[in-house]
Amino acid sequence: MADVHLDVQDYYGKVLQTTDDLMTNACxxxxxxxxxxxxxxxxxxxxxxSKYYGCGLTLPLRLEGAHVLDLGSGAGRDCYxxxxxxxxxxxxxxxxxxxxxxxxxRKYIDFHMxxxxxxxxxxxxxxxxxxxxxxxxxKGASFDVVVSNCVLNLVKDKRAVxxxxxxxxxxxxxxxxxxxxxxxxxxxxxxxxKVLYGECLSGALYWNDFEQMAKQVGFxxxxxxxxxxxxxxxxxxxxxxxxxxxxxxTYRLFKLKDLEPDCEDFGQAVRYxxxxxxxxxxxxxxxxHYFEKGKIKAVCGNTWNMLFQTRFKENFDFIGNFETHYGIxxxxxxxxxxxxxxxxxxxxxxxxx
Length: 353
Ligand SMILES: C[S@@+](CC[C@H](N)C(=O)[O-])C[C@H]1O[C@@H](n2cnc3c(N)ncnc32)[C@H](O)[C@@H]1O
What we know:
Elements: H1 2-15, H2 35-42, H3 46-50, E1 67-71, H4 77-86, E2 91-96, H5 99-107, H6 109-116, E3 123-127, E4 143-149, H7 158-168, E5 169-182, H8 188-191, H9 194-198, E6 205-206, H10 207-217, E7 223-229, H11 235-241, E8 246-254, E9 268-272, E10 282-286, E11 289-292, E12 296-299, H12 301-308, E13 316-319
Parallel strand pairs: 1-2, 1-4, 2-3, 4-5, 5-6
Antiparallel strand pairs: 5-8, 7-8, 9-12, 9-13, 10-11
């Protein structure tokens, strides 16, 4: 493990100085962004932006007042966006192991607090290994949202990180994160390749291994928010990787003890009230669920709980209960993320559950 830490620290601390130094486009973000996120990014210092190596949009809706933890926060771009979204009452904690990245992130705390008009800071950065989060004295069950952007693939003991996340989240909280996933298990020989590993490719999990691991840890119903193919624009890498395909996937995993392994039908429905800032016309829960304002929509028990037992409770009317079970939720099927169309905005890619 120590070797992997050193190699990754070397890659993100010394080999890469800015996004332009990346050899492939795996650690870059291609998804479209809502305007309010673009505005928030425009307030972030240019040096922080230049050292951004994320692969997705890891900032869910309704963060006002939330306590957010960013795992592998790098130079701090997502933390400083979150700092604006959580507001003065919220708080953001970033964790990373690479000194150079932390140096950039910490250098601009005062700059950003001034820019956002905050009299006291609402962001802090901790140095540490994600496999050893318990050493950082973060309070258990204290975070509303854990985010992470293109990091888990770089970690050897991925299960340890998921378990720590689960322990740090409040009940009803969520892990909302983007990472690189592979279409099949990656041979160990490729994982030894320092460039392929550093570029967020050969440490990636096969997506179904990730989903099984998430369920075993207690995140029973992982939901894909968006999924988009990564086109590796590097001949060497393409040759070495052969037929393995990669996607950048954003998952949302709620910590809810009542979730079931499958989507079950209890005859329930919800109606979105249109009262989430930046999403007044409709709200995306995931790539399968778009809730148009005012329209009643049938949902399975798990989706109901993801709205009723979380920070979204005030944003919906809830119709029904769990008294009668009507069987499996109709139309509910397994849609592997590699078959899904990237979508967390605009028209939903798929309907139903
Ligand atoms: C691809 S970069 C992404 C950084 C940041 N999330 C962003 O979007 O710019 C991966 C980051 O994860 C950090 N990292 C990787 N493995 C780690 C580990 N085991 N513990 C702590 N940080 C880790 C690296 O230091 C690096 O800053």
